Amino acid sequence: MSVRNRYQCVVDEVAEVREQYGRAPSEVRVVAVSKTVGPDEVADAAAGGAVDFGENRPEQLAARADQFPALRWHFIGNIQSRRIPEIVGASVLIHSLYQLRHAEKIDRAAAAAGKVQDVLIEVNVSGEASKSGATPKEAPGLVRAVAALPHVRVCGLMTMAPQGDAARAEAAFRGLATLADEIRATLAPDEAAAFTELSMGMSEDWPCAIACGATIVRIGRAIFSESFEE
Asked: Domain containing 128: what range?
């Protein structure tokens, strides 16, 4: 099966799950995580209808954005301070912000680029030492601090769920959704109106994430790997 066909299958499956939980088409979008593939696979996915793509390395993000300017590029990797101008220059949405010092540098880079940079705050809901992110206790204060920056817009939260444990993954997703509701209630009206996104769920657990309120699912292997099996 081609990348194009696998992408279309994923979109059809996402639509079925979304409808099962009463979610509207506009409420869930698929970000095709293309970090392990070449430009031919990106082009094939785009031919199948993919518009949103995710990259985790600043240099590849910038190169892909130059090569495919009509597509929407998301940064989903670890933020390196010195690469922030590249990330800001190419990203429609940064998913992995969890340090105020990075937010302040994003603000300056966005000002220089003449834009307001959309970001998500990454939260380590599960508490795993191997995962990055603010703690659930830190997240509300961080959201408010970042939202105060003039060239950064906080659009919601992101998390990485524990792998290989469906119950813990569901707990992480539900925890993020609850945290988002609590934070939204504390924001000013314009900030709350922008704070709508929950980026959670990947190839092995996205149906559960949609059930728990995900608005963005980040899917790579199910689209780009011939050997992926659910």
From this structure: 3-224
